[in-house]
From TrEMBL:
<feature type="domain" description="Catechol dioxygenase N-terminal">
    <location>
        <begin position="43"/>
        <end position="116"/>
    </location>
</feature>
<dbReference type="InterPro" id="IPR050770">
    <property type="entry name" value="Intradiol_RC_Dioxygenase"/>
</dbReference>
<keyword id="KW-0560">Oxidoreductase</keyword>
<dbReference type="InterPro" id="IPR007535">
    <property type="entry name" value="Catechol_dOase_N"/>
</dbReference>
<dbReference type="InterPro" id="IPR000627">
    <property type="entry name" value="Intradiol_dOase_C"/>
</dbReference>
<comment type="similarity">
    <text>Belongs to the intradiol ring-cleavage dioxygenase family.</text>
</comment>
<keyword id="KW-0479">Metal-binding</keyword>
<protein>
    <recommendedName>
        <fullName>Hydroxyquinol 1,2-dioxygenase</fullName>
    </recommendedName>
</protein>
<dbReference type="InterPro" id="IPR039390">
    <property type="entry name" value="1_2-HQD/HQD"/>
</dbReference>
<feature type="domain" description="Intradiol ring-cleavage dioxygenases">
    <location>
        <begin position="123"/>
        <end position="303"/>
    </location>
</feature>
<dbReference type="Pfam" id="PF00775">
    <property type="entry name" value="Dioxygenase_C"/>
</dbReference>
<keyword id="KW-0223">Dioxygenase</keyword>
<dbReference type="InterPro" id="IPR015889">
    <property type="entry name" value="Intradiol_dOase_core"/>
</dbReference>
<dbReference type="Pfam" id="PF04444">
    <property type="entry name" value="Dioxygenase_N"/>
</dbReference>
<keyword id="KW-0408">Iron</keyword>
Length: 340
């Protein structure tokens, strides 16, 4: 045995010796014992997260009287999610989306004061290879799509323009598929990155969004089928805004009147994000160098500063914890047990 191996074995043995004794575990005492042995990291937030996760997970098993077959089916389901994941497909994000967890976490972490743009779900098809394009550029290579001009502004809550914001934009093609869903994809399409100008503006040419099904050939799609839920999303365009000192915003604009507007498979639609498409008139066509009569999407996005969001997040967290009767304090804007 090498010196390093021997030292590692001694360290592991010491950890085991110092661990709380776990004997005669039962349905009634497994939870507090698991919480105890998970509470040795010295990291208050990790300890709290694991304590609540184990408590709720065990309570779920006790409340439902979870069978061995059901437990194994859940394990196989998660294995299946992992197997189908790739660099361009994340089944676990999709699972989080259809369970409503993605939207819940976003709403908790990025609360919006009145008048600011609300968030929506990221979805599983954002990539990091979108080209940076100048204002007015075309981000689509789909000849079948209905041409659309998008004219947008980014302002703060006082109505002032916010220049220099990185804006990530992506949508499906006219067949309802993202570029990464095409096996012969050799370059990004229907996606780009832009930067707002000195007046907080950005504009681009894309195509009119269409409704589409989320991937239903994997474990998440099979789960939706078992639940008798459809797998469709209403027509939309994704946007993500980033700038130092400003709250990170992931959102989308949804086209009014879509048949799935009120039953989005991933719960992303909010009233404030539903928009009406117009048609480009002669004056607008001349100004932006596009064809008269194509579709027109107009929207004024309102960002909040990081400080504004953090203050509101802390306020809402404190109110929620007080209602629950929990003795917790906020450390780095996250609750941990208050042991003082």
């Amino acid at each position: 045995m090498s010196a390093n191996t021997g030292a590692a074995a001694q360290a592991q043995a010491q950890i085991q010796v110092n661990a709380p004794p776990l004997l005669d575990l039962t349905i009634d005492n497994i939870t507090p014992n698991t919480v105890r042995i998970n509470s040795q990291s010295g990291d208050a937030r990790l300890t709290y997260l694991m304590s609540r996760l184990v408590t709720h997970l065990h309570d779920f098993a006790r409340e439902t009287r979870l069978s061995t077959d059901e437990w194994m089916a859940a394990i196989e389901f998660l294995i299946g999610c992992g197997k189908i994941c790739s660099d361009v497909r994340n089944e676990f994000i999709l699972l989080s989306d259809v369970l409503g967890l993605s939207l819940l976490v976003d709403n908790i972490n990025h609360p919006k004061p009145p008048g600011s743009t609300e968030g929506s779900v990221l979805g599983p098809f954002h990539t990091h290879d979108a080209p940076e394009l100048p204002n007015g550029a075309t981000m689509t290579s789909d000849p079948e799509g209905e041409a659309m001009l998008a004219i947008c502004t980014v302002r703060d809550t006082q109505g002032r323009p916010v220049p220099g914001v990185k804006v990530d934009i992506w949508e499906t093609d006219s067949s309802g598929r993202y570029d990464v869903q095409h096996a012969d994809r050799d370059a990004p399409s229907e996606r780009c990155v832009m930067v707002t100008d000195a007046e907080g503006r950005f504009w681009f040419r894309g195509i009119k969004p269409v409704s589409y099904p989320i991937p239903n050939d994997g474990p998440v799609g099979k789960l939706l089928a078992r639940l008798n839920r459809h797998c469709w999303r209403p027509a939309h365009v994704h946007f993500m805004f980033e700038k130092e000192g400003w709250d990170h915003l992931v959102t989308a604009l949804y086209i009014r009147g879509d048949p799935y507007e009120t039953s989005d498979a991933v719960f992303g639609v909010k009233q404030s994000l539903i928009v009406d498409l117009e048609k480009v008139d002669k004056e607008t066509a001349a100004k932006y160098g596009v064809e008269e009569g194509i579709w027109l999407l107009k929207y004024d996005f309102v960002l909040t500063t990081k400080e504004e969001t953090e203050n509101l997040r802390d306020q809402l967290a404190s109110e929620a914890l007080q209602k629950l009767g929990l003795r917790l304090k906020l450390v780095d804007h996250l609750p941990v047990p208050d042991l003082d």
